[in-house]
Amino acid sequence: INNWVRVPPCDQVCSRSNPEKDECCRAHGHAFHAHCNGGMNCYRR
After folding, report:
1. 0.85 exceeded by the pTM?
2. Where are the beta strands (DSSP E) in 1-45?
């Protein structure tokens, strides 16, 4: 099992800076961003 989860509402920030990606993940209850392959993926808390 992986430690990240798809967060579609954050897809729009995939082209932005890493701090902005982390902020979106935190806003959705996750730890920080993992990657944007196929859309935003955030690490679980």
Report:
1. yes
2. 4-6, 33-35, 41-43
